[in-house]
Amino acid sequence: MQIPPQGLGREDVFRSLEDFAGSDYDWRSGKCYAYTFDAGERAERVAKDAFMAFMYKNALDPTFFPSVLELENRVVAMAAAHLGGDAQTAGTFTSGGTESIMLAVKTARDYFRHRRPDIERPEMILPVTAHAAFHKAAHYLDVKVVPARVNPETFRVDPETVRGLISPSTILLVGSASCYAYGTVDPIPELGQVALDHGLLLHVDACIGGFLLPFFKELGVDVPDFDLSVDGVTSISMDLHKYAYAPKGASVVLYRNAELRRHQIFACAAWTGYTIVNTSVQSTKGAGPMAGAWAVMSFIGRDGYREIARALLDATRRLKQGIAEIPQLRLLGDSEMPLIAFTSDEVNVFHVIDAMSSRGWHIQPQLRLDDYRECIHLSVNPSNTEHTEAMLRDLREVCAKVKAPRGSKLASAVSATFGRLDPDRLNDAIFNKMIGMAGMKGVGVPEKMADINDIMNVLPPRLSERLLIEFVNRLFVQPGGDDALDPPRRRIRLPQGPPAHVGDLGSGSGPGPGPGPGRSSSTDAVLARLPGLAGAALDAARRIRDRLVDLGLPIPR
Ligand SMILES: Cc1ncc(COP(=O)(O)O)c(C=O)c1O
Asked: Both 394 and 436 in a single domain?
C-alpha cells in the first residue's frame, strides 16, 4: 500500500476512518468491562478539546513550550497531593502504567548501580499478582524477577514471604494497590517495614487503584494505607487514563524526592544533534495527553470523582453479591477496587465468556498460573453501572446453559503433544500446527476464543509466550498489492462462521443488540471480540493471498 498519489479529501478520509471503526467494539455501550474507562460524554468532550488544543506541542524541550512544563508540573503536583506526597515529592508525567513502571525499575537499578556497584545482576521481588509491566521492565533492563507467591484465598502477598526471598542482589520490592487481576491491595505498610529493615527501595504499583482508592476511603471503604505517606515507600505509579478518565497516554510516577528521581533522567551529549535530556522513555512527547489529563481532572473535580466513586462502589457490591448467588460461580478474593474476579468449579469459564460475548458483553479471561485458577475478570467503569442487573441476568442464564466442563480434549491433546517442547527450539512448521489446532487459521484473528484460551491455559508460560508472539507476528500483516492504492472505502470484511459452542446456546436470546441486518449472531460475536483493526489486517492478508493466486505464486502456509 502506498500513500495515495492525490490527497483523498476530508470527507473520504473521515468516511474511511468511520469504516475502520465500524468493526470496533462499542466501548460506550456500557457492556464492556475492560480496556476503557468512560466517565460520560461531557468529560469526554472536555478531554478531547484540551487534547486537540495541545496535540502538536512537544514536551521534548521544556523551555520551548513553557505551557507544557506548567501542565506537567500541575498534573504531577495534583497526583502527589492525592497520594500522600509532600514538598520533597518529585515526579514525571508518562504515557501509561507500563512506562511509569519501567522508569521506576530503571531508577532503582541505577540508584543501586551508583551505591552498590558490586551487584552484578540486580533482583526485584514481585508478587505473582504484580502487573506484567514489571516483567517487561525486567526484560528491557536486565533485572532479575524473583517471584513471590500470594495467599491463594486473599491474593495478597505475605511480607514475610518477601523477606525470605531477599538476597545480597535485591534492589527493589514491589506491592500493588491494587493488583489488576483480583483488585486486592498488598500490605504496603508491612512491605515498607521490610524495605526499611533491609535498606531496599519499595515501589507501589497504584496504576489502577491510586486514583480511585482515596475516594473509596472517603466513602468509608476499609482501604489499607498504600501511598507515599507510608514509611518505606520510595516510589509509586498512578495512571490517569484509568479511573481519572483522562484520554489514553496519561500516567505519573512519583518518587520520595528528587535525589531518587535523578536516576530516571537520561541525557546525551554524544551525538551531533540537538541537546537531549529526557525524564521519560519518550523523547518527543506530545502534550495532548497532559492537557487532556489536566482538563479532565479540573473539570470533574473532587466532588465529581467522589460521586462517580459512589456509583462504582454500589455497582461493584451488587455485582459481587449477584455473582456469589449464581450457583456455578465462585468469587476470588475480596477486592477493594471495582475489579472482580470469579471462577467456576463446574463450567468452563472460557465458554461462559464466549457466550456472554454473543450477547454483546465484553468480559475478560484470565489464564491459570500454577495453582492460581483461570477465571473471569471485570473492570467496572461508570458506563457499566446502569447495566448491572442485565449483566447479572445474562451471566446467570449463560452459566445455566453452558455445558462445557473445565478443560477440553483439544487442550489436553495440545498440551500432551507440545507441552514438553523447548519453546526456543520450535520451528515455523510446529507453530503453524499449533496455531491451526487452536483454530487460528495461519493469518487473521481467531474464531474460537474458548478453544484458544483452553489451550493457552494448559501450556507452560514460556510456550504460551512464544505462541502469542508467533500469533501476533502473523496478525499484523501490512497491506500490499496494487488494489491497496484505492481509497479504503470498502467495509472491512470479517471472518465468518460460528465461534465454538456459541451456537449451542441459541443465538441472540438475551437483551443484547442481536444480529445486525445481513449478519449472523456469530459474526456479531466475532465482531465483539475483534481487537481494533485486526479485521483490516485480515482483509489485507486475504488480498495478498488473492494476489499471489493471480500471479500463480505459491501461497505461504
Ligand atoms: C496494576 C496495573 N499496573 C500497570 C498497568 C499497566 O498500565 P498500562 O496498560 O497503562 O501500561 C495496569 C494496567 O491495567 C495495571 O492494572
From this structure: no
Would the pLDDT of 511 be above 70?
no
Q: Which one is predicted more confidently, 147 or 543? A: 147
CB atoms within 10 A of CB 555: 10
Domain count, the chain: 3
What's the CA-to-centroid distance between 13 and ligand 1, angstroms?
A: 33
Residue of 36, 93, 94, 180 best suited for mutating to test ligand 1, as the one with most atoms within 8 Å of CB:
180
Residue 501 lies in a domain: no
Query: What's the DSSP call for residue 389?
Result: H
C-alpha cell, 156: 495478597
Element (H, E) at 74: helix 66-82
**Best mutation site among 207, 337, 379 for ligand 1 pocket (most ligand atoms within 8 Å of CB):** 207
Atom 8 in ligand 1: residue holding the nearest Cα: 97
Q: What pLDDT score does 467 carry?
A: 85
How do residues 330-361 score in pLDDT, each as one tens digit?
999 999 999 999 999 999 999 999 999 999 99
Ligand 1 center–CA 207 separation, angstroms: 6
3-state DSSP of 472-496 = HHHHCCCCCCHHHHCCCCCCCCCCC
Query: Is residue 538 one of the residues assigned to a domain?
Result: no
- 425 and 315 in a common domain: no
Q: Which three cell numbers stand for residue 24?
A: 470496533
209 and 160 in a common domain: yes
Full residue range of the structural domain in which residue 188 is found: 66-263
Task: Say whether both 85 and 109 belong to one domain.
Answer: yes
3-state DSSP call for residue 37?
A: coil
Can you read off the three cell numbers belonging to residue 89?
515529592
- Which of 319, 428, 435 is CA-nearest to residue 379? 319
Single out the residue of 489, 473, 107, 378 nearest to residue 263, CA to CA.
Answer: 107
The reply to whether 142 and 253 lie within a common domain is yes
User: Is the pLDDT confidence value at 531 over 90?
Assistant: no
Residue with more model confidence, 223 or 494: 223
Distance 67 CA to ligand 1 centre (A): 28
DSSP 172-196: EEEEESS-TTT-PPP-HHHHHHHHH
* Ligand 1 pocket, CB under 6 A: 96-98, 101, 131, 133, 176, 179-180, 205, 207-208, 239, 251
Task: Assess if residue 539 is contained within a domain.
Answer: no
- What's residue 209's pLDDT? 98
**Per-residue pLDDT tens over the stretch 417-450:** 777 778 888 888 888 877 776 666 544 455 568 8
Least-confidence region, from 29-33, 263-267, 483-487: 483-487
Least Cα distance to 375 among 328, 318, 331, 319 occurs for 331
Domain closes at, from 378, 401, 424: 401
Residues 462 and 361 in one domain: no
Same domain, 215 and 254: yes
Residue of 103, 105, 128, 131 to test ligand 1 pocket, by largest number of atoms within 8 Å of CB: 131
Query: Same domain, yes or no, for 186 and 76?
Result: yes
pTM of the model: 0.85
CA distance 103 to 300: 29
